[in-house]
Specification:
The protein has a two-stranded antiparallel ribbon. Helix content is 60%, strand content 4%. The protein has helices spanning 46-64, 67-90, 117-131, 136-145, 150-163, 172-184, 186-206, 210-225, 238-267, 270-279, and strands spanning 97-101, 105-109. It is globular and about 50 Å long. The protein has one domain. The chain is mainly alpha-helical. The longest helix has 30 residues, at 238-267.
Length: 285
């Protein structure tokens, strides 16, 4: 038995004589968000990612009958989403994760929201801009073999990124141009997104892209039901809005340029390549 009044000999973790005692750890509280972080997203399970990729690849094969389309779109999707991931990590939103969505595509998921709408614009445009790099291997194979079939991969990669620039929820274009329109008035953004979204949905249904069109339709409906249309974060300044429009236009022009570069050796001229590329966006083609 020991006496509680007897002084305890100093232990190895006690403060040395003349040194202040270490501060007690501060308990996490709702008012101290830095002390209580939400658990990090571990990402998609590798098995489910593989199954989702196979399902998506099977759908692409069923729609196109081209194995080059399957390879180009899946590879282009990976590079596209990795562009989002790099931007998210650079702006403190990471570590971001990539998810493959069966039959639909992919998405990059951040761990936290962007600090400003300007960062959100840059993250949204990073996917299509970086995603164009996926066309380089197909250009290289065409140069090495002289076989025009590899240029189909270039076209598919370019169109994948160009379609993502459509300002329709939840595509990248809506996140790049939405804050600019909201700077005029929140209702301007909402009306524009709804109108463009409806046109894209009709285009998808008229061309037989039923799953893509249905997905956009549900996303559009979800946006309409949202009470807060604008995400959190500091709003765009007028100067940032101008830069956002300029970067959007440059990214779209780059996508069109890569698509035409892939089509011209096949079509034989710039005019025929432009006509063929334009026919892709026709209703009921």
């Amino acid at each position: 038995m020991t006496d509680s009044n007897t002084p305890r000999p100093p232990g190895p973790w006690d403060a040395k004589p003349g040194q202040p005692a270490p501060p007690a750890p501060r308990a996490a509280s709702p008012t101290n968000p830095r002390a209580a972080h939400a658990p990090l997203d571990k990402g998609q399970h590798p098995l489910w990612a593989a199954v989702s990729t196979l399902l998506l690849g099977g759908l692409i094969w069923w729609l196109t009958g081209s194995w080059i389309a399957v390879v180009a779109i899946l590879f282009g999707l990976l590079v596209h989403e990795y562009g989002h991931v790099l931007a998210m990590n650079a702006y403190g939103m990471g570590p971001a994760r990539i998810y493959v969505v069966p039959f639909l595509g992919g998405m990059a998921k951040a761990q936290r929201r962007a600090e400003s709408e300007w960062h959100g614009v840059l993250v949204s445009l990073a996917g299509p801009a970086f995603g164009l790099l996926a066309a380089i291997p197909f250009f290289g194979l065409y140069i090495a073999t002289g076989q025009g079939m590899w240029l189909q991969g270039v076209f598919y990669v370019a169109m994948l990124n160009l379609l993502n620039l459509a300002p329709a929820p939840p595509l990248d274009g809506s996140k790049a141009l939405g804050p600019v329109l909201a700077l005029i008035h929140p209702m301007v953004e909402k009306v524009a997104m709804v109108v463009v979204g409806a046109v894209v949905v009709l285009w998808g249904f008229s061309n037989g892209s039923y799953i893509f069109a249905a997905f956009l339709a549900f996303a559009l409906y979800g946006h309409l039901r949202r009470g807060n249309w604008r995400p959190e974060g500091r709003r765009l300044t007028p100067a940032e809005a101008g830069r956002s429009v300029g970067l959007f236009a440059l990214t779209a022009a780059a996508c069109v340029g890569v698509a035409l570069a892939g089509l011209m050796p096949i079509a034989g001229s710039f005019e025929q390549a432009l006509a063929f590329g334009g026919s892709y966006f026709e209703f009921g083609r």
